[in-house]
Design goal:
Elements lengths: L16 H7 L28 H16 L3
């Protein structure tokens, strides 16, 4: 839904690069943008084109917040 705070959900899945980055002291955050009806990682996975600008705006906001960290 648009206009409500996102739910932070820790879920499974691994990417081999993350431990390698961590071992080198490189902080890493992996995130994704999806909706419940997106059928993530299924043969009929989808993201509606009208949601793409919202994902870009969310990524921009996250990067702006990171830039404000000291």
């Amino acid at each position: 839904m648009i206009g409500i705070r996102p739910a932070l959900i820790r879920s499974g899945g691994t990417l081999p690069i993350v431990p390698a980055l961590s071992q080198r002291g490189i902080p890493t955050i992996i995130t994704g943008l999806s909706l419940p009806d997106a059928n993530i990682h299924s043969p009929n996975e989808r993201m509606l084109v009208e949601y793409v600008p919202l994902g870009i705006a969310a990524a921009r906001a996250v990067l702006q917040e990171f830039s404000a960290l000291q």
